[in-house]
Amino acid sequence: MSVTKLFTERFRPGNLDDLILPDRIRNEIGNGLKQNYLLHGEAGTGKTSAAKVLTKDYPTLYINASDETGVDVIRTKITDWCSTISVLDGKEAVKCIILDEIDFASANFFAALRASLEKFTGGGDNRFIATCNFINKIPVPIQDRFACINFNPVSKEEEKELKIKYVQRTLAITKGLGITMSKEAVIEFVKRNFPSMRSIVSKIQSFHDKGIKKIEAEDIKVLNYSFDDIFKMVTGAPDPYNNYVLLMSQYASKVDDVLASLGTEFPEYLREFHPNKVDKLPQILIEVANYQSIRNSVIDPAITMLAAALKIQMILNS
Q1: I need a surface site. Which of 97, 149, 283, 304 has the fewest CB within 10 A?
Q2: Phi, psi at residue 183, to the nearest 5°?
Q3: Number of domains in the chain
Q4: Beta-bridge partners for 86
Q5: Using one digit for the tens of pLDDT, what is the confidence trace for 143-163?
Q6: Residues 263 and 287 occupy one common structural domain
Q7: Separation of CA 197 from chain center
Q8: Distance CA 126, CA 117 (A)
Q9: Last residue in a domain, options 223, 253, 269
Q10: Is residue 5 part of a domain?
Q11: Is pLDDT above 50 for 302?
């Protein structure tokens, strides 16, 4: 059985011109690797794609810090990589290290990274590019050693500019796949998923895989939520064990995304499908904010996600 390539990789930008970025960011990174960069912002805004574009012409070590969170990664992989001189290019050759999703790294990782940044970037032959969704999780001494670039829109003008480009990219992709979206549908689709282009592309793949060829605005309401099954769970009748199994088996690695979605997408979902429960939103949002704030202080972050979802379910059924 053949496996279809993920659209998020199939349509990943391969050069700077293909990246959807505001001029503010394009001007800062357009001249290449002048310094270490920390790219931060919401999921799906192009941080990893930008990092890969910036490093594509250099030897690059890629580390997903959400998987490799310990200090041994610094002591072995990064130290070995930075200490090795390229046989072909000699001592002055620039080598790159991408630290993706660095906000998941441990305190020991950050302590060791600080020392590595001081040791291996002074000579100008190593460049570090880190990405994260939540910059508040990055210690200030680490932030100070990077040029920090915010990938979220910082003004209404930037947001409008990006949404127009998202609409254009969405139409280009769907047209190439033989999917027709009405003007109203594509505008609503982008509005609901902004600023995550990755979410847009993933959902386009879902449309394609389901054989959907025409999409109107009213279709977006039932095709478009990132965590639809979780939203249905928390608005449904309590079923503690099966709810536990769903969350822990499917979403244990997506804690931050689920918690963020409960605070952003879920209110709109509630308004559309359970308008009689909208009066519960203030209490729900207070609880979501609370669980987001304690996420890093618990032994198993997945339990925080589980507790938040079940608490919302209790509020809605009270």
Answers
A1: 283
A2: -60, -45
A3: 3
A4: 90
A5: 999 999 999 999 999 999 999
A6: yes
A7: 10
A8: 9
A9: 223
A10: no
A11: yes
pLDDT at site 268: 84
Rg of the chain, C-alpha, whole Å: 21
The pLDDT, as a whole number, for residue 124 is 65
Tell me whether strands 147-150 and 60-64 are parallel, antiparallel or unpaired: unpaired
Domain that holds residue 238: 228-316
Instruction: Dump pLDDT digits (tens) for 196-208.
Output: 898 899 889 888 8
Q: Got the DSSP string for 61-88?
A: EEEETTT--STHHIIIIIHHHHHPPBTT
Judgement on whether residues 192 and 209 belong to the same structural domain of the protein: yes
Do 158 and 22 form a contact (C-beta atoms < 8 A)?
yes
CATH, residue 109? 3.40.50.300
pLDDT at 159: 93
* Mean pLDDT computed over 63-85: 79
- Residue 231 C-alpha from the chain's centroid: 20
Q: Rounded distance, CA 98 to CA 49, Å?
A: 11
Residue ending a domain, choose from 111, 131, 150: 150
- The answer to whether position 15 is within a domain reads no
Burial classification of residue 2, based on how many CB atoms lie within 10 Å of its CB (0-12 exposed, 13-18 middle, 19 or more buried): exposed
pLDDT-derived band at 90, boundaries 50, 70, 90: very low
